[in-house]
Design a protein that fits this description.
144 residues, globular
Amino acid sequence: MVLRTAEREDLEFLARLDEICFPADHTYSVEEMEWFVIRPRARTVLALRDGLRVAFATLLMEGEASAHIATVEVHPDHRGAGLATILLHDLERWAAEMGIRRIFLEVDCDNTAAISLYESFGYLLEGEFVELGRERYRMARRLG
């Protein structure tokens, strides 16, 4: 498996995988995906297996010492192979290099696999809210 920074040529794949992984009312537009890719204070990392794009994750810096994991997405055919773990390690390494001290994320309350993954990294529940009719958690972790 190979990790690399996403580029504009990857936008169609990013949008397509987003549509596969999330309900229609919670997907990012191609324009939002492009912003994730070109924004200087962001990292979108792709995972490739045998030359094929299979997963990606995006971290957006929010201020000087905080960042937001916008999304972690793994194609259903490639889940269970540890790709989300590898992507999270990459995002956290990059965040630490950028001086980030706190990372937060939002996750659906019923997404137990993702919640377990985030907890294994040390993310803690900060709150609960409803967005577009879905119950969600806000989780956060301090780096360093």
